[in-house]
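Researcher: Let's do a round of design. I'm pasting the structure tokens now; please hold your answer until I've finished.
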């Protein structure tokens, strides 16, 4: 924590004063700017570059009760070799009990293994369970942990509890990066999204992430805009750069490119890298590959040309 923020988390009262002292979000303005940016057109050469960049930013994800070791191995093979000379994705994201299977399948490919933890997706468990959940995933080889905050505590104004849980989970991560999931669809207002973003960053999160993908609405463009503005302002204040990961509902190449335009126009090229921006998705990759094939050959490949995610 930087000197200017050193005392912010000394009590719930100081945290509340800081978070509620942040500038309010102009909801109409945020909606209008997001809508305006989503109309930007991209020429063919730039579009091809954007598609490959988006592929390299994908966290290829499976978070279903029916997940199997075989499904994870197949997903890892696709993550490393999407097809057609496309770049490999940034990471695969799985439940903690499947981390070891992903680690074995990915080997030294460079694709990261991310794991959800902390009683995903509800976040409703004891701190001891959340820390243990995290530690087990890291011990199995996870490079990244995607934790969920306690939205009930946040909405009740118990900011210190949320802060202390993030700090404890970050400590349990060791060398693994921590992505803090805000579940923006449950936060009700853009002001709350901004406050939760700052709270997660002050507590040490390496990324802030919109959603679990289990609650609607998930990664809307205005919400992503608010979070991008938060990481920009946080870096201006502290000098520390934090990543952003929209997740849930990003299914098409158009969706992905709209997000990249949003990043470029809001925080600039410093965030246009898998190190600082990710796209959490399960079905997006195939659409990116189909559009990539169309640009390369002039013809659309059928959906059965690519393996299912």
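Researcher: That's everything. Go ahead.
Model: Designed sequence:
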């Amino acid at each position: 924590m930087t000197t200017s923020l050193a005392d912010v988390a000394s009590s719930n009262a100081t945290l509340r004063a800081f978070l509620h002292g942040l500038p309010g979000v102009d909801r109409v303005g945020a909606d209008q700017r997001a809508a305006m940016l989503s109309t930007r057109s991209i020429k063919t050469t730039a579009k091809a570059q954007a598609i490959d960049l988006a592929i390299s930013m994908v966290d290829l994800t499976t978070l279903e009760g029916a997940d199997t070791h075989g499904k994870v191995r197949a997903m890892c093979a696709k993550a490393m070799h999407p097809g057609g000379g496309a770049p490999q994705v940034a990471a695969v994201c799985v439940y903690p009990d499947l981390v070891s299977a992903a680690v074995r399948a990915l080997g030294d490919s460079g694709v990261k293994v991310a794991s959800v933890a902390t009683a995903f997706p509800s976040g409703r468990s004891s701190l001891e369970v959340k820390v243990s959940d995290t530690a087990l995933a890291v011990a199995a080889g996870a490079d990244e942990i995607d934790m969920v905050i306690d939205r009930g505590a946040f909405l009740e104004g118990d900011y210190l509890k949320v802060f202390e849980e993030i700090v404890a989970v970050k400590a349990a991560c060791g060398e693994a990066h921590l992505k803090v999931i805000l579940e923006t669809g449950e936060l009700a207002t853009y002001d709350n999204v901004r406050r939760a973003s700052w709270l997660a960053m002050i507590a040490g999160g390496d990324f802030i992430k919109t959603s679990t993908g289990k609650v609607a609405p998930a990664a809307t463009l205005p919400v992503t805009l608010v979070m991008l503005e938060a990481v920009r302002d946080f870096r201006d204040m502290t000098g520390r750069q934090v990543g952003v990961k929209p997740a849930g509902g990003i299914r098409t190449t158009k969706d992905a490119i709209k997000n990249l335009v949003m990043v470029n126009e809001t925080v600039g090229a410093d965030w246009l890298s898998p190190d600082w921006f990710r796209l959490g998705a399960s079905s997006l990759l195939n659409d990116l590959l189909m559009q990539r094939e169309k640009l390369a050959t002039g013809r659309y490949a059928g959906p059965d040309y690519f393996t299912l995610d």
